[in-house]
Amino acid sequence: MGFTLWELMAVLCLMGVLLGAAVPHFYSSSNFVRSEADLANREEIEGAVQLYRIDIGTFPVSVSDLVNLPDNIKGWRGPYLPEIPVNPFDPKVDYQIDKLGQVVTISNW
Structure pTM? Predict the structure, then answer.
């Protein structure tokens, strides 16, 4: 026994409808995960910035100062971060630290 062309078309149409309903749900989930990862990265960097400020007395110039010993700095007890976090939305966009110790994103383009 075999399937008729109409039966196969009906099954394919139903699969298309089910996939069409499921794909947007997975896409929004991935954006939520990226947002949460970005927030976690920012909080980790800002916590390390505060530890740096306690040891040195000023905010670091860049995020790399939290990982590697900057030149002409005394009192550095780092590394304050094991590695520089990567932006989950775009790896070409770096995290930077403003004058108040808050994290901002700057594009490398």
Answer: 0.71
